[in-house]
Amino acid sequence: MRILGIDTSTKYAGVAVLDDDNLIAQSIMQFKASHSEKLLPEIAHILEIMKIPLETIDYYAITVGPGSFTGLRVGISTLKGLAYVTGKYIIPVSSLEVIARRIALVEKPICPILDARKKEVYTALFKWNEGKLIRIKKDSVLSIDKLAEWIKEQTIFTGDGVSIYKEKISALFGTKAIFINSIYGIPSPEIVATVAQEKLKEGLFISAKELEPIYLRKSEAEIKFG
């Protein structure tokens, strides 16, 4: 079973193809140009060089948020177009879960945070238990001060929000806060596809028509124009 995984939830964008448990190809890039200019060509490039016909992709998987409003819109509209053309189903995945999974099989809780601007972060809380990542807190948007209500023990912080709020997190949590290399805070399209495999076993897939981003709050335009 082949799954095309896509992530555009941050300033990075990635594409991966998973064939059962085998990673066939993966590309992760920090785009200086808009995701809209590079995403579809990169998908086409990976499929071409690996000689994978688009029709042989069984399912699509994508991070639906939270994250960059523009990035999510680009990724979702691109994938919707592919799904309409091929008639294939889509598995939506949380961008925060994807980031948390990059820190595999640790004993301590994992708190992925993405910058949501307005002095807030997109965040959730996870913990590994017997080889399975368990969600402790749902995807949320809140301030670092409010996040203090979640942190009861030593916790690993990861994601692009760490570099912005590291000083404040350290001040609030002291030795409870553990920071790791920022490379582990970049969402991986391979993990997007891996999570999708698990969701497929539960029948958690949708049609292109049903695919929508999860923003957690209104965009500036929605706030401005009601």
Account of the 3D structure:
This protein is of the alpha/beta class and 226 residues long. The chain has two domains: 133 residues, ATPase, nucleotide binding domain (Nucleotidyltransferase, domain 5, 2-Layer Sandwich), CATH 3.30.420; 83 residues, Nucleotidyltransferase, domain 5 (2-Layer Sandwich), CATH 3.30.420.40. The chain is built from seven helices and ten strands. A five-stranded mixed beta sheet has the order 3-2-1-4-5, sandwiched between helices. Helix 3 packs across helix 6. It is globular and about 50 Å long. The relative contact order is 0.19.
How does the helix and strand content classify structurally?
A: alpha/beta
Number of strands: 10
Estimated helix fraction: 25-40%
Total domain units? 2
Q: Major β-sheet, in short?
A: 5 strands, mixed
CATH architecture of the largest domain: 2-Layer Sandwich
The separation of the N and C termini measures 44 Å
Q: For the largest beta sheet, what order do the strands appear in spatially?
A: 3-2-1-4-5
Radius of gyration: 17 Å
**SSE succession:** EEEHEHEHEEEHEHEHH
Segments where pLDDT lies below 50 for 5+ residues?
none
Give the mean pLDDT. Answer: 93
β-strand percent reads 25-35%
CATH superfamily of the largest domain: ATPase, nucleotide binding domain
Query: Which CATH C-level class of the largest domain is it?
Result: Alpha Beta
CATH topology label of the largest domain:
Nucleotidyltransferase, domain 5
Number of helices: 7
